[in-house]
Design a protein that fits this description.
18% strand; alpha/beta; 15 strands; 5-stranded parallel sheet; homotetramer; 451 residues; 7-stranded mixed sheet; globular; 17 helices
Chain lengths: 451, 451, 451, 451
């Protein structure tokens, strides 16, 4: 049934006016450019296409192994949890709810859903569309109230599984209150490493620099940095610094403006809080402001409880970064257009690995290099769940066709793909069939001794 | 490398004297018959055979999907957690440690291992054998001290993952102290349902009864009921009760004796505690003692801190069982030769489903019936991780070739099979390769607008 | 790209007028009822839904295994053949072409396509729709001429792979001319076995008979028996014969008429040929005509070169059927509303197995029984590629969500599912990456001795 | 059962004296060095380890998908063919027979086996060992006579499947006589491409050359070139030629001698035949003898019907190689220590692709380059079943842990791995279970209209 719903819903969302409606709907509540909002609608539609037809039943396929005697066979199923819950964030008001919700429903769970109360209009609209496409109204309960009320509800209901996407602090509380029956995608302090130039004959570092810089700007500042995959830390090999990387970054950041929402309000921190954090960073010896660092200068009506500041980059020397007394400060995520930049050399590469190891959250990462040995070295020392490698590597922009989620944590939840849905929304159940003939005295069976 | 170690270790354990040595070693510390102890050695050896040769690398296989442009590809890997821990129980002193440890090591984790201090001799012997077969001594740390000390150690070390097998109470504490980074197989209050006789032309219920009764006796009392899969609750359709099931069970239980360890000491409850629990049960209206219920009569030297009592069955009426005021008492697991028995009819079948739903742990279960519709009805209402169905269904005796573990819980851990090891000992890591040509102005690339 | 084409094409075909248009289009050229024609359109549409979005790339997924040293890894890919051909039959003018063609294109092959010249209008219309949905015109060449011309073309072109669906004789010639580079679904002489009544308490044989008979009628005579999966041989246990199966079959057949095309023209045999075959069968001692056996009595304008006769059943005694001198005659397929019926008992069951073993083509089969042991006995003695079991088993009506194809033949081709497409339209290619560091004298490598 | 046999047999072959016995046994009948013969024993043993324990049943695992109504489910099985045959070659007298035979037996086939009558002693010895380890004597028939007799036998028996490894000519005849029911690994004219030096900063081309040359020598001349994977054609980019590749190759070849069997008798061509072929090649304009080209100078007792000549390399200009009038001659495989060498530049690279495309057999290939774009270009234009890429790429030395077999041919057979065995030795069988309740008038079912 859900295959038919997906096929119909995707056909609806393929209509240009429906696509545009949802894009605008997203822009109303989440500050991002039209391009970014439309991308969210497209990814959601492709996800629905992926589970059209019989793909839902194919996803739930089981496997069987023959047993020790005639009529014995064991089958490994993916089984739903039954009563479960989802808590979704504000920053992708269409994509994250749909991908998570549909995943839960595909596998046969009964879901209680909540997301950020600022963006409920988007979910409400998409649910109406899904009902129109045949989704039974009773398959899903949608909770539109405050966080604490929902927390109390969950604590009493004790769902068999809760999928949470959001901040570390709330994640910890849920894990505690729900006895660990939680899968989560919590904070991401995501990093990118620009490896040494490999000496390729094909294109010089000078030719490569503009594209590499462009991807850095997108990763750090698109959607005002309010993606869980946004680049928070950039480790650049000296080759790139010498070539003028910093000037490129500054110039690209300066293109951003409020009018087309290429920079916009920050929903989880005030301007004052961010400026305070920045000032603390600038007390670290050798640190300096690369660019930004000021409240937005354009006239605007962003309320005080949100942040409004320029795309900002702060330089931290690598040897300071990894000092215990500074590392916690440096690795605190600002969920906005804010990043740290540092430099390494062939000699100080181990310090980069140390920094990666010290981080506690392992969502996305990028290893920008075409050297397989360099790639393997970094990969082998890290566990980020979604890691990009290659000269075109980025940290953001994950599509619906590959797993997206944190690594190195048994509580980690993925979204979007068959593997993610099977992992999060079902558990292994082994059903062993033993339908061989019952041994009886007629067929010569004798009672064995007790064991 | 671990493939070669497994092949050699299995070859060692295939030698009759090594097999016998380990069987006796097990009997020294865990009260079970020679048949049961030998079965443990054989299952362990077959597990090692299963991961001989290249099977360890085959188990870690990844999959890849092509991307959106030339040179882009995404690969889903199973990645080790790195620093991790295992806490194992006393009842299978060889099988559980080896299956869990080797699983962790196969996937590349670094393990800190602890098991019950009463049975360390078995692990110590098998580790020496594995070192002899080539296992590097530094791959594993073995902790031989007390539980509380180890708990404190874990709390400080915060391993990325801990696999725990044991009681509910300790499981809850670990989940709390390790922030949910725990996978576990906790208490099993396992049940069996004997379905209505289907009217088969092949064998009469009279012919089937001896075998069915024999399996019940084994499931409830083998290894003195000290298996996590032991049958704690038997729901029998009236067809079987009328046919004389209870008399058969009593007769089979009466064959058990201390001499050949077909019944033996209970390590986690004293005789007094069990008798107290039984007396409480017998206050439920309509309940009665079916057989057993007395301390072991044979002369023995079992110390006071252990239990020593006859294989026991207590009858509870189904309508009382599911009453809230009695259910918690009835579903308290006694980790020894102790079971509850009840009866249902076609009319009261829903009460059986209610009882199954009320249980909180979902390890093994058996649906003894050859009627596919009856099987589907029970399966659809339950989530036990390892469920047997068919006239030959049992609750115990899981081999190394199918998943064994609880269901319906995101914290549930399986053991033994490829799927179990991949699930418990690795996490998904997606590595996206983007090695396509870097867009440059030479090849016509122009800087796009910011987003 | 093909994922997007499928999504759009499925959305088109979901429109009621498009669905109706194709159904009528099919009826114009292939004699079947509107219900059967519409079913063909629906199955085709669901197939397209199944490969929407990213499912085409997911289908082509590869797997990787790590090697013996750093930087070595082996990947198993599914690789296209490149230049290939398809020869499709007349009886499913929409479904078979689309499922086969799209399968070939999904995997990246370049296809030369031919089907029966009587039904080209349907393919032509669907190709125009696919072009409209974005399919590049150069991906596929469509040949609309005669069989011999195409045969000569194939012989010269020697495509790397040809998928053929049709008669045995042409299959043999193609295998010869194309040096075995052919995968095929040739003739199906499909059988059904009605097993002994199991004595179920749930429903009596009297209650079951109407449904069982109805399925037999559909399997033998729907689409005038012109399905490759049509039931050509019915083995009925005496339980069913005694209960009145034959009278039921006769009554159901008598409902069929030309007006609504529940019986219609036979395209591959003339009335005279079929009557001749029947007469030969009736010379076998003990055989008799059960019903039908006459040219269609209604006034009609079916041309002489086609067949037009009533749904027909001929009784053959089992002991005669398996005689070498009769078997070849009995197992000659009439591609029309024509079946043989025989009876067996518990004692003569081995003769049924003998008959199944003597058959040369192994497409569909049905084992109508709810006894797992009976099912296993028949399954273990047969190799039919698509076998139904259970009391509701049929031989026809395969949907798009499970494999459909012959068994027991390395040349056998399946259609429709992921497994079928991967098997037919791609071959295994193992690419071993060995990008570890090159050993050099700088890193201590010394030239080893020759081997 | 076969899991236990494999475990025992591998344990036997791990004993040093058994390993040595089989190595010497191989050397008696197949001319190769002790290192090469021992490698054959080790690969065979590891293959047996891979299928120890339960891995045979795991390999045969099926998968299931739920149906459209309660009680319906479809399962895709891998099913044995039953009566089948194997024809194995002389060059790997232990490895190929064991890997192929065991694969067939694992999947439940009944096999008639034949190999080259010159090497039967090895198979006979290993069969005795397998019988000792528990293999039933009736599972396999071993035919030790002449090829024509066996051909006649096959033609009469018409096994459901025959796996053939050997020459093109015999393959064609078998395909014809067995109506295409053949899977084969026929001639391999295997090539290697040394790509342009990428300008890596890590090691210079001068440093890389010795290792690259060493691998070329091994690939072309180890086991006297009598491997189906031996390098027959070397395409070297001018970078390597300029650096002195040819001198390195000549020097390495000159180390080979008859005493330690690093060069030895050629079993399928006489010295005269090879010299004749070489002379024809040398008539091509621009061709020249690089080294070798003479009968073996050492005194020896190799009989006249075998070949005995020095490791030989002939230079052919690329533009001549791809001319239709020369290509067939150039691409004729000499199954001995004989290779062609040619040079290409960035400009003439398309000619290399043309040459690869013209070849008719697609077994192994190597792309020696660390440039992913160069690798993708070559990979995208070729279909070799086993292709190595990377600076360490080779054409020979395939282990038991990855697929080995030809590509681009539906008749292609792989050996060794799970995928290869499933592909060759089993066919897909879909078994659809429809055990839902039978619709009856009691439950409200009414007879639908005919279709």
């Amino acid at each position: 049934m859900y295959g038919a719903i997906c096929a119909k819903a995707a056909a609806e969302m393929r209509k240009p006016n429906v696509e545009h409606y949802f894009s605008r709907c997203i822009q109303r509540v989440a500050p991002k450019s039209l391009a970014q909002a439309t991308a969210e609608v497209v990814v959601t539609r492709k996800f629905l296409e992926n589970f059209s037809g019989d793909q839902v039943r194919f996803m739930a396929r089981s496997f069987s192994v023959t047993g020790d005697h005639d009529g014995q066979m064991s089958t490994g199923w993916r089984w739903p949890y039954g009563p479960s819950a989802i808590v979704a964030p504000f920053n992708f008001p269409l994509e994250i709810p749909v991908l998570q919700l549909m995943g839960a429903l595909f596998m046969g769970n009964k879901v209680l859903f909540k997301n950020d109360s600022k963006v409920t209009v988007v979910v409400e609209q998409v649910l109406r569309m899904l009902h129109h496409c045949g989704m039974p109204k009773e398959d899903l309960d949608y909770f539109c109230g405050s966080g604490p009320t929902f927390g109390a509800l969950l604590k009493r209901a004790q769902p068999r599984l809760t999928q949470f996407t959001g901040s570390n602090a709330i994640a910890d509380r849920l894990v505690d209150e729900l006895k660990g029956k939680v899968l989560l995608e919590d904070a991401g302090f995501d990093w990118k490493i620009l490896g040494p130039f490999s000496g390729s004959r094909k294109s010089s570092i000078e030719e490569q620099l503009p594209y590499i810089s462009f991807v850095c700007d997108q990763d750090a500042y698109a959607s005002s940095g309010q993606k869980c995959s946004a680049q928070s830390m950039l480790f650049a090999h000296e080759d790139w610094i010498k070539e003028g990387l910093l000037a490129h970054l500054e110039e690209l950041a300066s293109r951003r403006n409020l009018k087309d929402l290429t920079v916009g309000p920050v929903l989880t921190a005030t301007t004052r809080q961010v400026m305070g954090h920045m000032e603390q960073l600038l007390t670290i010896p050798g640190s300096r402001l690369l660019f930004g660092g000021k409240p937005l200068q354009e006239s605007h009506s962003i309320p005080e409880q949100y942040g409004a500041f320029e795309p900002t980059a702060v330089w931290i020397p690598l040897d300071k970064l990894i000092m215990p007394k500074y590392f916690k400060l440096c690795s605190t995520e600002i969920f906005g257009p804010f990043q740290l930049v540092t430099e390494f050399t062939d000699v100080t590469l181990p310090d980069v690995l140390t920094a990666c190891e010290l981080m506690e959250n392992h969502l996305t990462a990028a290893i920008v290099s075409d050297d397989p040995e360099f790639q393997r070295l970094i990969l082998g020392s890290t566990v980020n769940g979604t890691t990009y490698k290659g000269l075109r590597a980025r940290t953001t922009g994950a599509p619906q066709w590959h797993w997206f989620g944190p690594g190195g944590d048994p509580r980690g939840a993925g979204i979007g793909t068959i593997e993610a849905i099977r992992h999060v929304w079902s558990c292994h159940r082994e059903i062993i069939d033993d339908s061989g003939p019952v041994p009886t005295s007629v067929t010569g069976w004798k009672l064995p001794p007790a064991e």
